[in-house]
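Exercise: predict the structure of this protein bound to zinc ion.
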Amino acid sequence: MSVLDELQKLAAGTAKTVTQKSSDIVEAARLNIAINAEEDKIQKLQLAIGRRIYEEYACNGAIAGDAAGDVAGLCAQASILEGNARDMKSKLYSLRNVKECPKCKEVLDADMVFCYSCGHRQDEPAEYADESGAGSGDPGGAAVEPVEFVRSDGGDTGADED
Ligand SMILES: [Zn+2]
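Solution:
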């Protein structure tokens, strides 16, 4: 086979792969945007958490009562958003045929056995990594709707009638 033939064959193969993968590229872009949006929300929540803690400390010299409850609620929201972002990232990584080192979070080629950054062997879980149960069937169910952090009470008592 001539070099030209081989090149043509190679080019044809490449073109086919590119067409097949274009939907993946669109999906990857969509996931990237969604992940950024989620991380933006997480940052805002973290800011609100910090603000709430500081506010309480400035007023009372301690963090207790309502403030502790508020902060716990905000932390719970942030943690749900982080779970969403993590799910989307793992989809994105499988589209790109890469993976994240469970230990140091470096992004690696999917077939790498050792992390080039921290040296962690990829088929062994990181010592702390038991939060993502491998192959758990439930994709999360209902969409998460973060509650606005508002100070004033909304009129949602339901029991008040004249
Ligand atoms: Zn690593």
